[in-house]
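Quick look at the format.
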Amino acid sequence: MATEAEDRRFLRLALSLGRRGMGQTWPNPAVGCVIVKDGRVLGRGTTAPGGRPHAEPQALAQAGEGARGATAYVSLEPCAHHGQTPPCTDALIAAGVARVVAPLADTDARVAGQGFAALREAGIEVSTGLCVDEAEEDHAGFFMRTELGRPFVTLKLASSFDGRIATATGDSQWITGPQARRLVHMMRHRHDAVMVGAGTARADDPSLTVRDMGVERQPVRVVISRRLDLPLMSNLARTAKEVPVWLCHGSDADPALREAWEGVGARLLSCDVSGGQLDPLSVLQALGNEGLTRVFCEGGGALAAALLNADLVDRLVGMTAGVTIGAEGLPSLGALGLARLAEAPRFTLRESRVLGGDVLHVWDRPRA
């Protein structure tokens, strides 16, 4: 029988394997699995890009007959429902594993404890409760989608020391240095989608892709534009058939523009309008309905302010450069309409460190 320390070590290995799939497996969670017998790792698996095959059958295939009597360490409760693939519980039972260790239950209503129950009914010992905080962190986007119907939102703001993202003339390249920009590409890769507002799409003509990292599966590129008044000769339009572009718009968007964007390969999602702008919750629910679990928002200021005002930012990433631009520069945030400091969104510091010539600071929404 493994000790608690051994269980933690192998479970953390399963969690680390699962993290490799972040941004690649939606709408499924990024799960890792390790098959262990007599202290030796016989098989490893992680959810494949696109969400299939799952981690457990891949790890079992590596272990082969060695899986009989072994322990399976899985970073989330094994699935128990028939989807496009058979349940992972069936694979674990058929392989003859003696024990399954997982941190916590799946919140998907199709699983939600049924996987653990099926394993126990088959005579397999099930242990839970270790590494719960790490698992909740890793699966936060998947849980948020299954419980609230929307993805986890990371808002990234790269700005000058005085909170500006461009000069009064719009000059903005580059405020932060190469190390910060490379980290942004890594963060994009770990999210299902990169999201910007229409103003940013018009002003910067961004590609919103992950570059110089050997990535095969790019994140979905999402633009929030009520009227679809975006340039049809942009980088996004020219590459929409190669890398997905989703446009969230209002029901009053010009039908001719809808047809034009669909013609270049973009996917259109109609969302509710509130106060003359697209309702941010409606936008996120539409993205969640399409399967997205983790969204990386890169502005601009109006979209960032709308998300903050609606209390829809789960993680705030700041990249601050040692340059000052002044009050005439473009602020990183649009108006929040605050009368009192007590009304201001407040986050809890998670991490801060020097990043080349810049400072990285990461803040989380306070836990309830």
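Next, a different chain entirely:
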Amino acid sequence: MIDLGLARIAALLKHTPQTWKAIHVAGTNGKGSICAYLTAMLRAKGITCGRFTSPHLVDRWDCITVGDGAVSEAKFRHFEDMVKKRNEDQGLGASEFELLTATAFEIFEAEKIEVGVIEVGLGGRLDATNVLKQKSVTVISKIGLDHQSFLGTTLEEITLQKAGIMRAGVPCVVDGSNPKSVLDTIKEHSTASGTPVKFTGPESSELVREIQDKLEPHQRQNLASAHEAFRLVYPQHANDTRILAQAIGDTVWPGRLQSIGIGSLTGRKNPVLLDGAHNPQSAEVLAAYIDKNLRTGDKPVTYVLAASDGKDLTNILGLLLRPQDNAASVEFGPVDGMPWVKPMGTASILGMASDYGVAAASLFDAQANVQSALEWATRTSNEGPLVIAGSLYLVSDILRALRSTTE
């Protein structure tokens, strides 16, 4: 269950030092990519770093990285068991995410990292990650309507929750492409909290200008925020754009405009596009990419779609689907460590696709069978554009299935 608040996580970590400094990243869209860019830049300059992002994609421990990759399962379980015992001994009743956050922070301390790149789980002000003690800079990415039942029904209310990661005297980097209402709310909060704010855009970053032709518009915006945060923490390294550009060019953030092959699962020869777009802003980015790179004339795009139960898919599908398209709906499997996450029923997804003009003959109900959805999409697309989208949990299922073919 989701029960926001800092009391339990603070008790869990009461006696755990945080000798490492932190870069804390909140937002609705782009925060994972910003964390990936930051990690790439830190590693490129030989700075010992850790990264904590959520949700995990394949295994629960892959959301915690130190240096070049995810921590080992053995190390993860050792510290997780220690945190769980502490939780039980003190009767804290910590949530799954709080236990995971505490595990990450314990690992970072044990590994003696210099800096941790920490992604907010939900919101900011009351998120477990906001227990950080040594923030060097905070970052707020693009903000949109999401998780309204927890964060508020308006952009301004949601922005205030995310701005809760700010600290007096600690600089905050903000994506300058946010709506005016978001920027105004952040300005007011920064004044009240004594936080210096830097609004960023692609034009403000020499690094972005150097490689902008290789980036999509939203990637330029995210990189601008990441580069400014890096500059504030390590000004002596920020202008080494040649090394940083190479590191960014090598960065792959799974499940975001990711090109993958599914031939081992279905025999398809051409790559497919895998994207966890699950809100209108991320769907807008995905739709723009598809229209630019995959659609030619009236050529249909074939989708494999899933969503979390309770998600408002109306705007998302409206951005992605055209009447000539094909769509399979599927339910993702159980999410390890997040038992409260349930998939939306496939009939609901198909009903909304039909509302946007997709013909009944172009729809397929795969129910909970991801393999069946992929096989139908492969046959139907006939090597034409194929996109898997709607949920990071579906992304996880796909990546896990692909891994099983190579084990």
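The mean pLDDT is 92.

See the schema section for token definitions.
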